[in-house]
Specification:
mainly alpha
Length: 184
């Protein structure tokens, strides 16, 4: 359950960060063309971020890489909220979060391979990914509710930072040790 909820919350933050980006930028005074252009730029950052997170996964291990990923979301999304009054500086923490976002599905898969091996991967993946995807589907409802209640998309990013911190805790207490397939 810690995996499903932990990665599900990170999935919300990933999808939500992307979905709320353009309206968030419009609130900051950017034109629609500039906001969409900056959104396109974040996709390039996510390619590099995904590669870097993959290297960290290989070198440090899946659990440490997952915790770094969640920590980058906490820092990036909370920073995007905290720095909203400072011209253009809020983009730095936001792009930090967006850059690591490309690694979400990769880290879920890597977690399962490192813990259950290739033999049990398919059966465990179907449960984890389905559960995490169901949680992720709350993203759009949460964006609408938070933006409507607070009157700003900046609070949406603060919420992504908060749920990423909760995800960090869930992943930190999770057991990432290898569990071999039962012998028949």
């Amino acid at each position: 359950m810690c995996y499903i909820v932990g990665f599900g919350l990170l999935f919300i933050a990933t999808t939500g960060g992307i979905t709320a980006f353009v309206p968030y930028m419009l609130e900051r005074g950017y034109s629609q063309v500039d906001a969409v252009g900056l959104m396109s730029l974040t996709s390039l950052f996510s390619l590099a971020g995904s590669f870097i997170m993959g290297v960290l996964d290989t070198r440090l291990g899946t659990k440490k890489a997952s915790l770094i990923f969640a920590a980058l979301y906490v820092i990036g999304y909370s920073g995007a909220f905290a720095l909203t009054g400072i011209d253009k500086l809020f983009l730095l923490p936001l792009w930090l979060a967006m850059a690591s976002g490309g690694a979400n599905a990769n880290l879920m898969a890597s977690t399962l391979v490192s813990q259950y091996g290739r033999a049990n991967y398919a059966s465990v993946w179907s449960v984890l990914f389905t559960g995490a995807s169901l949680i992720r589907n709350l993203c759009y409802l949460l964006i609408g509710a938070i933006a409507s209640l607070s009157g700003t998309y900046a609070r949406v990013y603060l919420f992504w930072g908060i749920i990423s911190a909760f995800s960090f805790v869930l992943l930190a207490v999770s057991n990432f040790k290898y569990r071999p397939a039962p012998q028949n």
